[in-house]
Amino acid sequence: MSPKATTVVIVEDDLGIREMLSRVVGNAKGLELLGAYGDGESALAGVARLKPGVVVMDIQLPGMNGIECTRAVREVSPETQVLVFTVFGDSEHVFEALKAGASGYLLKRTSRAEILEGIELVRDGGAPMSGGIARLVVESFREEAANKSKACENLTQREEEILGLLAKGYLAKEIADQLSISFFTVRFHIRKIYEKLHVRSKTEAILKYLE
After folding, report:
1. 1, pLDDT greater than 60
2. Bridge partners for 32 per DSSP
């Protein structure tokens, strides 16, 4: 295994889909499949032991559902990124999953190439979402932009500007280009934003911004 390979765990109760995802990940360069589980409880035990880079998570699972499992995964392995892969495209499931700590949200009609791209994006700090899901988030941003959370009141003008661009889907490098500042300056501001909002991830910061 290459030392730069991203380790992946799959959580999916449908055997056919679980085997398909296992083949896709197992055959992909730069990825290593550590395990594939059919329920949240066994997956959580595996994640606690294996500490994978990315978990591909279904929502509809027997026993512990995928949203509960996502929250638990983030507790036992904070560095692990969760990519939801589900049939549910409604706003309730989307925002509950994001609040639980998911970094991306793909629907099961997503192509195999897009699944791999999604894994790479969450690994690199991105937030991949299927088109319809991204629209839900953008619409929420537009509706709530005038009603920022009180938690954001302590942010500087530059920090709020950067958080606003994060909420629109810009990556740190793109924000640096947009604002004509260095990538490292953007990363510094993002760390200060996390501290002030008492969050641990970009998704949590965006959700606070949209409250």
Report:
1. no
2. 7
Helices (H), 101-156: 112-123, 131-144
Domains of the chain: 6-130 (3.40.50.2300), 145-210 (1.10.10.10)
- DSSP structural state of residue 146: T
147-181 burial code (b ≥16 CB/10 A, e <16): ebeeebeebeeebbebbbbbbebbbbeebbeebee
* Both structure tokens of 67: 């949203």
**Residue 7 DSSP one-character state:** E
Convert the pLDDT of each residue in 154-208 to its tens digit.
889 999 899 989 888 888 899 999 999 999 999 999 999 998 888 888 888 888 7
Coil, helix or strand at residue 88:
coil
